[in-house]
Amino acid sequence: MDRKPASLDWRTTSPSELMAVYDRWSNQYDTDLQRMHGYRVPKVAADSLARYVPREATILDLGAGTGLVGEALYELGYRNLYALDGSAGMLEQARQKGVYRDALLHMIGVDSPPRIPFNAVIAAGLFGPTHVLAKMLGEVVSWLEGKGGHLVFTLRADEYDGDSDFAAAMDELTSSDAWRLLEDVTPFKGLPKSDPDRLFRAWVFQVPRRGDAASSGKERPVDSR
Ligand SMILES: C[S@@+](CC[C@H](N)C(=O)[O-])C[C@H]1O[C@@H](n2cnc3c(N)ncnc32)[C@H](O)[C@@H]1O
Questions:
Q1: Phi and psi of 136, rounded to 5°?
Q2: If DSSP codes are grouped into helix, strand and coil, which group holds residue 105?
Q3: Are 84 and 118 in contact (CB under 8 A)?
Q4: Which candidate, 1, 2, 6, places its Cα nearest to that of 194?
Q5: Domains in the chain, please, with CATH?
Q6: pTM of the predicted model as reported, rounded to 2 decimal places
C-alpha cells in the first residue's frame, strides 16, 4: 500500500515529483483522507458552489484528484461534471467513481486551457504555495471569461491570511473587476480528526463575461439552504 511519505517536504517537490507522489498515493488517498483526517474540504466546496450554480451547469473540477468533489456534487444533483488533474493515478480513481463525463489529464500552468464549455470551476485542495500558485488564479479566471461563470476554491487559512501571495492576487482580481465576490465562506476545520486546529477558507466568485464589469448586476443564491 502506498501512502504519502510522512517525511515528504512539499516545498521542495517539483511538479513532476508531485504528480509521481499523487500517482503512488492514489489507491490509498480516499482511505487516508477520510478515515485518518476526516477530510471535509471537498464537501464544503461542493456545498458552497451549490448555493449559486444551477444543477444543469457544466462544472470543471480542477485538481479533481480521486473525485471527492465530483462525488459530493453528484450527490447534490449535478450531472455535467468533468475532472481535470495532472496525476494519471488520481484521475483513474476519479474515473472509477462514475460521476464524471470525462477525466482530463492536464498539467495546470503547462498545458493549454481545456476545451470544455464549462460554466463553473471548482478547486478543492489545489491552490497553495506547494501546489498550484497564486499567479494561476488569473489564468483560471481567464478560462471563464468567454461565457462568464463561477469559480469556487479553497485554501488553507494560514496560506491565505496576512500578507500572502494569494491575498495579493485575489485583491488584484477584485480591483481589476475580473471577478466579484459572492461568498467568503466561514473558516472551517478541513481535517478535523488529524489537525483540528487547522482552518481552511473557501470563496465563491462570479467571473463576468469579458466586456461586462464584475461589479454590475446582482446575483442571488440559487438555493438558500
Ligand atoms: C490535495 S489533492 C486534492 C484533490 C481533490 N480536489 C480533493 O480535494 O480531494 C491535490 C490534487 O491537485 C493535483 N495537482 C497539483 N498540482 C497540479 C497541477 N499543476 N496540474 C494539475 N493537477 C495538479 C494533484 O495531482 C492532486 O490530485
A1: -80, -15
A2: strand
A3: no
A4: 6
A5: 5-207 (3.40.50.150)
A6: 0.93
Report, as an integer, the average pLDDT of 166-178.
Answer: 96
Dist. CA 54 → ligand 1 center (Å): 25
- Cβ–ligand 1 contact at 103 (below 6 Å): no
Percent over 90 (pLDDT), the chain: 82
Q: What are phi and psi of 39, to 5 degrees?
A: -55, 120
Measured from the CB, is residue 126 less than 6 Å from ligand 1?
A: yes
With vertex at residue 145, the alpha carbon angle to CA 54 and CA 160, rounded to the nearest 5 degrees, is: 85
Length in residues, the chain: 225
Identity at 79, one-letter amino acid code: R
* Sequence-distant (≥ 6) Cβ neighbours of residue 130 within 8 angstroms: 10, 11, 13, 18
* Residues 7-44: tens digit of each pLDDT: 667 776 788 899 999 999 999 999 999 999 999 999 99
Q: Which residue shows C-alpha cell 463576468?
A: 208
Asked whether 64 lines ligand 1 (CB < 6 A), one says: yes
